[in-house]
Amino acid sequence: MEFNIGPRMVKTGLAVALTLLVTGLIGLELELVAAIAAVLAMQPSIMRSFKYIKEVVISNSVGVAFALAGLVLLGNHPISVAAVVIISIAINIRLGLNKTVSLTVLTIVTIMLVSDAGINFIYIIERLSLVAIGVLSAFIVNVLVYPPDHQKILFSMIKNASEKTNFLLRVIPNQTMSVPQMKDEDKELEKMIQRTRDYYEIISDERNSLFIKKRPDFLRTIILYKHMIKVLRKKHTLIQHLENNFKNIENISSAKFHLIKKLVIEINAYSENVLLMYEDKVILDKDLQKETKVAMQVTINNIIDALQGSDFEKWTYVFPIANSIIELFYELDKLERLVRINQQRRNNS
To answer: Any transmembrane segments, and where (predicted)?
Structure first.
């Protein structure tokens, strides 16, 4: 079993430590509440920390209002606390504040666990201060400690997923992998692409960050990554169609089988080269690449022409693959143009 301590784990621990230090200096009781708030408030990006704080202000206002109303009307019996928690959660979800529900519940419970001395203004301020210290400690640590290099992390995820698709597009035409193993590989690839898409949403949030030094370069980079993820999704679709239909095509027509196999090999090499060109590891001659793309287009046209007049069964097997290849080719061509524009800008700067 692997045991890795990532930056977010370290930042969460530091946020808890900072929270306990601050509450200890101020002399606040129930510092455990502040520590829990710090853990809940740690976000994967700076902009999400900003958004989280905004949501906390709104959701906790709702929570405090219901907690005080619950104390006055129902008291602090466990059933009363439960009723207030349920109502507050429902309202927060209705307002779209799903991410801060846990912190709102913590605030409500903290306020409603009033001692025999009763509730007063100082009591409310102290309880709210515990939550505020935890949230602000998480934000400060997130900004100052290990600021995440989202571009580097996301490209690494794209590259890993791309290498997986390249591997599958090499082995499927050769039919060198068992069906159970292929299904496992496909599931793993699907998870990798989904994680990449989720992380893209994080880096996309950073567009409005005040901490971006070279904003135009950053915006161009996330546009490139968006297209790379589109290519990954198109490759995954092609892989799924090949898994479902390739064996049947071989049984129906040997000529179509070899045409598609050749095309898959060519478009897979094209995909690898575009990514390597982005990394400045290879130089693709534009004219030579144009000839290669023309050759691929001719092969695609040959497949489509061969389908003319075919029976429905052949269409159902060949058309999904041919359509996936066409869509992938279109996205790769667009990505190549963007990569070349990006390289030209870097060379001119």
So the answer is: 12-40, 52-73, 79-97, 104-124, 130-147
